[in-house]
Every structure is written in C-alpha cells, then in structure tokens.
Prior knowledge:
The chain is mainly α.
Amino acid sequence: MTTNNRSWRRALWTAAKLILVAAAVFFVGKVLVDNWPDVRAGWQPPRAGSLVAAALALLGSYFYLYKVSLAVLRRVGYRLSFRAGLRPFFYSLLGRYVPGRFAVIVGKIYMYERRGVPRLTAALAVAYENVFAAVGGVAVALALAAALLTGAFSWAGLGLAAAGALALAMLIQPAVLRRLLAWPLKKMRLGELGTEMFIGRRGSAAFALAYAAYCVSLGVFFAFFAAAFVPLGAAAAAQVGAAYVAAAVLGYVAVFAPSGLGVREGLLVILLQRYMPPGDAAFLAVASRIVAVAAELLLAAAAAGAGSKTEARAARDGPSAKDIQTQ
Length: 327
C-alpha cells in the first residue's frame, strides 16, 4: 500500500469518527432543544442533599481510581508517593478529551518518567490500567445491560452477564495478557519485560474487580445526581445509575470519541427515557457531562499546585531508595 493510500484511509477514518461524534451530539442536542419548554415548565429547585451526595460520590470515585492506579504501578515495580502521582493521574483525565488513547498513554508515561519511574515500568503500568479498566468496565456494563434490557434476575439476563464475564475472564489470564502487552511494548523499543513485572491471575482479577467497583461508584454518583432534579424512587434511582454505567463504559471503549463525548450522552438519553421524559433525560445527560468536566478541571488545577514541589525534587534528586519497590 502506498503512502498516499494510507493517508487517504487515515483521513477517511478521521472524517468518519468526527461524523459519528457530531451525529451523537446532534441527537442529544435536538432532544434537549425540542423538549426544553417541557423541561422549563416542570423545573423545580434541585434537592440539596442529593447534590451533596452526588458531589461526594463523584470526588470519592476519582480518588478511589487514583489509589487503584498507584497500586497498579506499585505492582509492576515502582512505589510512587500519593502526592507525586497526583499530576500524572489528574492531567491524564483531561487527556481523554483528545480522540483516541494516544494523548492519555504517552502523556502519562512521560509524567511518570519525570518522577523517576523507568519508562518500561511506566508503559507497562499504563497498559495494564487500560486493560483492567476495559475488562472491569465491560463486565459491569454487560451485567447491568442484561438487567436493564431483560429484567432484573431473569434467566436471560443472568445468562448474558455470565457469558460476558466468562469471555472477559479469559482476557485477564496471565498468558493472554503477556502476549497482549508484550507486543506493543516491544514495538515501542522499551526493552525486554522481566517475568516478575507481569501481574498474575489473582492480581489481574483483583484489579479488574477494582475497576468494576469504580464503575459502580459512577452509577451511585449519577443516581444521586438524577434524584436531585427528577423525583425517583429507590428502585428507579438504582436503574438510572445502572444506565449511566452502561453508557459511560460504552463511551470509554468508543476510542474514536473524545472521552466518549456524544456516545455516552446519546445512549444515556435512550436508556433514561424508560424512567423519565426525554427532555429530562437529555438535560441530565448534558448536565452530568458538564459537572464531570468541571470536577476534572478543578482536580487537575489542585494537582498542579500539590505536585509542583514533588516534581522539582524528583527531577533534581531522582528516585530515592524508599520509593522503589522490586518484585
């Protein structure tokens, strides 16, 4: 294939991705605009208690995910202090708004290196994070989608969830993960991976479950957030939270969309219409995105101040003996 043909294919694929994102955003926007008079007519002041609970759940989910990220890095061979890892983690959240995973992966590896983490170790940790996030997230989304589409505790729903969990369990087998991760790292010419750097079966399962728990925490956030604006019973709030998790995971795996923009909101509008009018569904989809972006910007700004002294010290002195953990 000639260079010109490859360029055309890349250009067409980029255009297709932009069209898909634009179509999803247009769909959500149209639903919101068409139903805005109804949204305004039924507007009630948000419930302060539910908003506070939603804010705490969202912030808690971010810091929980941060701790899991540090644990993955520690497991592959490097112990980074809580303060030193703030910038790489919270800056990488903003990198998700660049289409694809390139900005997140390369940026996080670079920032880890600035803190003394060997490049190969940093690359392996970031690769593991993405795999575990996808596996854990998809497992939860399949289980919740099965319940949403077929009814909670139905045999069909349980069968779909079990089949999905079995398929995903195969992906976290050590032999499969080693082949999956070794090839791209070798292509990046980062060196040979030591056997001790790989995470075993129990560790892989534990990290996949940890990321699955993070997805559940996002559902808790949205259940409280939705309940602040729309009257919901406990059962409906749980189902609304489950719908958000399913939509968020689909947005995560849709790498063509910046942080799932449009994809998450579009699916969320479709799923939420079972529990509320379409205008309210579109409003909550857009409002939850705005809240998430604002939270990520604030946390990144806080991390910039908290991590500045740590970065300067790491660049001057290099990693200390107590910060390095070998397998």
